[in-house]
Amino acid sequence: MGSRPRFRRGVAAAAGGMALVAALAACGGDDNGETGSGSGSSDPVVVRITFDGDTVTPVGERVEVEAGQPVDLEVTADQPGELHIHSDPEQELEYPAGTQTFKIAIDRPGVVAVESHDLDQVVVQLEVQ
Ligand SMILES: [Cu+2]
């Protein structure tokens, strides 16, 4: 196998997300000791999603993560709804009004869409490397 520049780019992106992670860690949260036997990156990538009426933020944003890396989806909504993760298998996340964080991880490389079917929008595309 040759060198894989794409991989290095992913690592740099993950490091860039650390500031966000540190900010969130200060809010506490439970420490479960389980760790995947993954490729090393166990720091979660935090993705903030806001639903407000008929709009959602972000729309179609690409987020690079590593396979098996924890992803915290922090969902803030003015009313309850459902997020759809197009991973394999697919996952449906029901969120309440208010803020809730969902912890997910995608094991396989590829692009995984996070969608709101209510709004018919792709919210985030997780680029899993
Ligand atoms: Cu869907």
Give short descriptive properties of this protein.
single chain, 129 residues, alpha+beta, 4-stranded mixed sheet, 2 helices, binds copper (II) ion
Report on the structure:
The model is unreliable at 10-39 (pLDDT under 50). This protein has a single domain (5-28, 42-128), classed as Immunoglobulin-like (Sandwich). The chain is built from two helices and nine strands. It is of the alpha+beta class and 129 residues long. Helix content is 16%, strand content 44%. The structure holds copper (II) ion. Copper (II) ion is lined by residues 84, 86, 115, 117.
Short description:
The chain is of the alpha+beta class and 129 residues long.
Residues in β-strands, percent: 35-45%
Number of domain units: 1
C-alpha Rg (nearest Å): 15 Å
The 3D shape can be described as globular
The CATH topology corresponds to Immunoglobulin-like
- Would you state the CATH class? Mainly Beta
Bound heterogens, unique: copper (II) ion
SS field, number of helical segments:
2
Instruction: Record the strand order, biggest sheet.
Output: 3-9-8-5-6
Give the uncertain stretches in residue-range form.
10-39
Q: What is the CATH homologous superfamily assignment?
A: Cupredoxins -  blue copper proteins
